[in-house]
Amino acid sequence: MKYQFLRLFLTRDEVGLFSGERLPPPVLGRSDYLADKMSQEVKFSARRQVFTYLPFGIIDGFSVGLIGRQRERVENLPPSSGFAPTVHRFWRVSNVFVDLEDHPDGQKVAIQHNGEVGSPMALVRGLADALNHKREFGDWLISTNSLSDGNEFWRVVHANRGKITEATFTYLSPNIFRSKRTIDIAMHRVHADTNTEEMSLRLRNRDGALNLETKRIETSYDYISEGGGRAVVKRGKKTVYDSEKRILTKTVDDDIDIEVTSQ
Prior knowledge:
Number of helices: 5
Low-confidence stretches: none
Mean pLDDT: 86
Structural class: alpha+beta
Strand content: 35-45%
Number of domains: 2
Radius of gyration: 22 Å
Order of helices and strands: EHEEEEEHEHEHEHEEE
Helix content: 10-25%
């Protein structure tokens, strides 16, 4: 059973929409707000499909639930019915585990990768969008992004040395990590000055002489690999690396299935 790992970020407006005055502290902290939202059954859409999130409670600090999608297939009735076709409707589900602890770098999500349900990234983003749609001004805003394997990025960079023509780094803003790294401080300042939600850096060299093996790029990619944005690397017209398509994935034992029992 494969799981993909994503990062949830909870941010909020610091000043009033019209007054410009600083808002009071939120009623619930990040952990309690997320626990409250993840305890609700939610119907949501993603990629033109309808899904349902069903919570199963909190276990060892993790909010546990299932995301389900209704499927259907055509079957045939018994010979006595002339093998008449009939539509059988059923559900496929993916396990979801959300770490509720308030980490400086955001909460992690582990979601089962089940092709019959959908893309883990699309599912979690669709669920977050549905929860945000119900939020009141001043509540936490839930954002999500992928975690990626830094070793894979550098493997691709090394394998294509002397052939890389373009690299794009997109950074989420405001500062989503509560740390003192230079890039975190810089992203906080960019957001404070411009109110931007994301910022992109595009590097190009048509001759393939783009050098990504620098300390600055290493720092930038570290930020992205932790869920702070997206990195795309091209060799000519071919994309050789896309962090959103190289999500951190781990294979685990099948015995952690969430058991669905009738009430």
